[in-house]
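Lab notebook, bench 4. We co-purified these components, and the gel suggests they stay together. Before we commit to crystallization screens, I want a quick structural picture of the whole thing.
Request: model the full complex, all chains together.
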Amino acid sequence: MKPRQKRFAFIAVGVAGVSLAVGLVLYSLRGNVNLYFTPTQVFNNEVPQGRSFRIGGLVEEGSIKRDKDGLTTNFVITDTHKKIPVTYKGILPDLFKEGKGVVAQGKVEADGVMHAEEVLAKHDENYMPPEAADALKKADAANAASNAAASAPVAK
Amino acid sequence: MAINWFKYSAPTTFYGLAGKLIPWLAVSAVILFSIGLYIGFYVAPVDAQQGEFYRIIFIHVPASILSMFLYLVLAGYAALGLIFKTRLSAMMASAIAPTGALFAFISLWTGALWGKPMWGAWWMWDARLTSELILLFLYLGFIALHASIDDPRRADRAAALLAIVGSVNVPIIYFSVKWWNTLHQGSTIKFTGTSMHVAMQQAMFTMLAACWLYAAAVVLTRVRSIILERERNTAWVAELPEVKQ
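Here is the predicted assembly.
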């Protein structure tokens, strides 16, 4: 091998080795790299006990209830399998809405409710004007209606 | 027409070529920045979820893409310099580093400005944000390591090794939103397509092209200075009209 090819091989092997090492480290630390737990993981007891952690998911439709003090909000985080009720006293981000992404940090107390210290909104990667979003919503509703009609038992 | 590319790997010829390219790159960058900002502010519609706030994407995404792309180019030049021992490669790597660091900083800064009103937090230690911060530190580390060694050839070799090892971080940044759950949303530009309204896409890609042209113009300007500095004792530099007078 020419010295030039030797140096190339050295670099290629070096990069492969470093990639493998970093890959293994990140793989073994994946639980710490993930930002939040899903409600399903909470039910499977995969979360740290007795200390604060984050839950991520969607705010369940129709679950937002505000207390009379005007500051406390109760809602439910769902990953469409399991649900965790959350109570939070404080100001919520503008994007906090039913059916949208949310990440809450706090402790799950004995009553099974997460008492959150911080609630963040997680938005998706789709960008479109309001008219297009409305059109999509209507199309979804129409699809759901026609599916329901198709699957409903025929009367008479 | 056959172009002898190796001709331009010599600082002597590349110095002149870069000098000819810079004005074209700079003027195109200014034109595309104007077009991109015009489309971004006046043509692109408001976003259904985020209203006007999303418009920071037109600088945030191009800056992020370039911070990663420039790092790969830097690492590529560093590797070429180590393998072929070409003088120009190491100079190019040194010339790219400050611009790459600038784009990584803009990406983090605009991300924080965007995160506060939308997510409710300036910063979150999630995989995407943390790996981008590491990218900024890799750039700064490259610059610092290169500056700390007096002999330029030894500085080139040491910094090149750091750059090549650090390139492992770039795929981690890109795939972080896929591999782990993060507060940062997934990629809007995917290999399979883009989940964005057409006018918004035009603004973003125009801004991306503008940032790329800006980066090319600035890097070539910087590499010309580095060439002059390192080759200051050679005959060809002494012969240059701008040096002679």
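Chain B has a mean pLDDT of 92. Worth comparing against the SEC data before the next meeting. Chain B touches chain A through 39 residues (CB under 8 Å).
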